[in-house]
Amino acid sequence: MKTIDELLSEGVTGKRVFVRADLNVPLDGTTITDDGRIRAVVPTVKALADAGARVIVASHLGRPKGAPDPAFSLAPAAARLGELLGAEVAFAEDTVGTAAESTVAGLADGRVAVIENLRFNAGETSKDDAERAAFADQLAALADVYVGDGFGAVHRKHASVYDLPKKLPHYAGYLIATEVGVLKKLTDDVRRPYVVALGGAKVSDKLAVIDQLLGKADRLLIGGGMAYTFLKAKGYEVGISLLQEDQIPAVEEYMERAEKNGVELVLPVDVLVSSEFPDLKTKAPAHPTTVAADAIPADQEGLDIGPETRKLYASKLADAATVFWNGPMGVFEHPDYAEGTKAVAQALVDAPGFTVVGGGDSAAAVRTLGFDENAFGHISTGGGASLEYLEGKTLPGLAALED
Ligand SMILES: Nc1ncnc2c1ncn2[C@@H]1O[C@H](COP(=O)(O)OP(=O)(O)OP(=O)(O)O)[C@@H](O)[C@H]1O
Ligand SMILES: O=C(O)[C@H](O)COP(=O)(O)O
């Protein structure tokens, strides 16, 4: 993989450099609630700009349906990037076409532009190779060189991640180099006990990872939205909790295999439930009830792990030599459902070993709940991406940079 340092030594003055970042930050309306992913790409953007490149920063945000949707505009992220760089950042209101072309044409050497959300275009995420390649051609027309630095999205076979680097000279940015360097430590010679904690909401994406982790981790702690498919597979009723019904047979097999292989698969023993998802805007009191994991009422959903589970998970992390944690334990954005995530974060801080937190929302949770970033071994910008890396999968965005 060629790195950005090689690009810089070749000289970039006046070159149009396309930086594929992951600016998929949590938003409350147009307010960014955690700018960690923007800060993470600053070293790459700054180095290129300082060397006289014309920098085009591109990213996805959320999961719009292949068409413009103002709720997912990158305009707030562009403004924040400008503040962090201490320089004006131009914003193109379209990803490709006239608006993007004229913004890029107007860039002076050493200046930066952000183009609108890549996923406003169906070609970005298309499963059709030709459609993706056609969109990548449009993106390629904007630039001379490609720098991949959106670690959080390298597991996606998307046009800007996988197809575009094939069309331009390509290099890995500083963030990707750092992330891969740290995660490699967890795949090469991991110190034991190795404990993995999994939660969050992208259940279908992340359940498959457990298949591989069963051969690697000593203990798996399951929380967040992920837990209810396990509880259901155990024969419990989960009410209206997040559930991946089609994965139940796979989860049953994971539980059997864990037992056979001597991997501790730890599930919640109690959960906080409510009949309503909380209002994350007003943060109005949600008045949840604590119930045993096998007593979730039919009309209620589990939204955090309960107090006994918090203690149990803390005890399972207390002697860990290596920890990887992805996915909040509950809907931490609401104070009534933040205690589970706080307890696991605190247990990582207290654990004697090397701790890695991965994921956009997991990293945001750690910071917004008031933890010191330096208390963790590494905070990765990638959730699904880091899990798939640990799984040993070939990640499209890394493979494309290696080619
Ligand atoms: N029990 C639950 N029910 C519904 N949503 C939940 C539950 N527990 C956690 N969540 C939600 O999960 C979301 C985060 O999940 P996600 O899988 O996106 O994690 P992540 O750290 O951002 O990883 P990635 O980077 O892959 O997106 C949070 O917004 C949180 O509110
Ligand atoms: O949040 C993430 O994990 C990355 O930005 C990738 O987003 P995605 O899961 O919507 O592809």
Automatic annotation (TrEMBL):
Molecular function GO labels: kinase activity
Keywords: ATP-binding, Cytoplasm, Glycolysis, Kinase, Nucleotide-binding, Transferase
Keyword Nucleotide-binding applies: yes
Main location: cytoplasm
Binding-site residues for substrate, renumbered to this chain: 22-24, 37, 60-63, 119, 156
Catalytic activity: (2R)-3-phosphoglycerate + ATP = (2R)-3-phospho-glyceroyl phosphate + ADP
SUPFAM superfamilies referenced in this protein's UniProt entry, alphabetically: Phosphoglycerate kinase
Pathway it works in: Carbohydrate degradation; glycolysis; pyruvate from D-glyceraldehyde 3-phosphate: step 2/5
Subcellular location: Cytoplasm
Chain residues that bind ATP: 206, 302, 333, 359-362
Pfam families per the UniProt record, alphabetical: PGK
EC number: 2.7.2.3
Classification via InterPro entries: Phosphoglycerate_kinase, Phosphoglycerate_kinase_CS, Phosphoglycerate_kinase_N, Phosphoglycerate_kinase_sf
Family to which this protein belongs: Belongs to the phosphoglycerate kinase family.
Known partners and oligomeric status: Monomer.
Record-given protein name: Phosphoglycerate kinase
Organism expressing this protein natively: Streptomyces vinaceusdrappus
